[in-house]
User: Which sequence fits this backbone?
């Protein structure tokens, strides 16, 4: 028996024993135990009797190849590893979604216990996700309008695990406040805000960034088409409006992603990465959101798929006033945003 076969036999025996020892007690999992046991048994059988995989070699038409059996074995093991990787990823995604529901549930229950939720919220609510944005919130919150067309406007700050004075500033400004216990990303933070508003009589939700890039003066332009029942969702577009010059790469990306989204959905969208938008709360009844970050395209794609009437309104995007952007480097942001678009579209 060659050294390679001896090594394979040793790995198979050790793997089989390890599988039994690991899963025999409280960590018992029938599927994983059977899967790993079969893998290790197959490894033992192949190393003891290499002719046992001749059928696989012949099936793959590798019988004439000098290393036909070895190649067949490598192909089979790669298929197994791919299957196991997909299975593991699916399990992890399921755990992520369960964790997401747990954290959001804790946030909603905490806020419900702290205040009379239905009596506190307004018919129009501005949801602002914030991570270490205390200085910007000091500038932003006093300028948010208290009413639009005579309808009261309230503010809900969702603190995404900040370690600065974000929560204190929100409280000082009289805004509703709920906090994630850890930093989770803008999409997960907004889902918590949506969960809270779903328990109330709020009719319209506005989302905006906490970094002073979105002007409160543009808010009425987003909400009024909803009040007139022209649309169910209005996106603030810097392309239709204006923007302070910041990153040329990012602006090029906005145009390219606008064309990509429009192509995929058959609906013309000029600014798919805009986080400044307003929509009717009823819209969320038919939409499932799961993205923790790069979430703006997810809501847009899901809304189009649910036949929500979508429009755009011109806005002005300013440069961030204080602090550094949380979006990361331009290239990585573009790659992750692309992934979110394609993942959501496919889903």
Assistant:
């Amino acid at each position: 028996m060659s050294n390679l076969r001896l090594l394979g036999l040793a790995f198979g025996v050790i793997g089989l024993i390890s599988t039994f020892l690991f899963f025999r007690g409280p960590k018992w999992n029938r599927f994983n135990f059977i899967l790993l046991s079969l893998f290790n048994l197959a490894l033992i059988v192949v190393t003891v009797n290499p002719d046992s995989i001749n059928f696989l070699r012949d099936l793959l038409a590798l019988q004439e190849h000098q290393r036909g059996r070895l190649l067949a074995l490598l192909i089979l093991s790669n298929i197994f590893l791919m299957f196991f990787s997909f299975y593991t990823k699916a399990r992890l995604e399921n755990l992520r979604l369960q964790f997401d529901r747990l954290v959001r549930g804790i946030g909603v229950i905490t806020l419900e216990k702290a205040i009379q939720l239905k009596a506190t919220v307004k018919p129009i609510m501005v949801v602002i996700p914030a991570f270490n944005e205390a200085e910007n919130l000091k500038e932003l919150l006093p300028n948010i309008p208290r009413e639009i067309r005579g309808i009261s406007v309230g503010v809900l700050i969702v603190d995404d695990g900040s370690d600065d004075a974000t929560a204190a500033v929100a409280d000082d400004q009289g805004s509703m406040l709920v906090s994630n216990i850890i930093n989770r990303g803008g999409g997960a933070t907004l889902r918590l805000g949506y969960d809270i508003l779903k328990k109330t009589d709020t009719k319209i939700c506005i989302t905006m960034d906490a970094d002073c890039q979105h002007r409160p003066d543009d808010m009425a332009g987003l909400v009024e088409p909803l009040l007139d029942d022209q649309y169910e969702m209005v996106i603030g577009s810097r392309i239709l409006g204006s923007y302070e010059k910041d990153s040329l790469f990012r602006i090029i990306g906005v145009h390219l992603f606008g064309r990509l989204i429009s192509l995929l959905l058959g609906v013309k969208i000029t600014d798919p990465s805009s986080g400044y938008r307003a929509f009717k709360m009823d819209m969320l009844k038919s939409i499932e959101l799961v993205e923790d970050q790069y979430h703006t395209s997810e809501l847009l794609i899901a809304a189009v798929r649910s036949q929500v009437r979508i429009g755009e309104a011109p806005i002005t995007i300013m440069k961030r006033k204080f602090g550094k952007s949380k979006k990361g480097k331009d290239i990585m942001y573009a790659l992750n945003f692309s992934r979110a678009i394609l993942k959501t579209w496919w889903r």
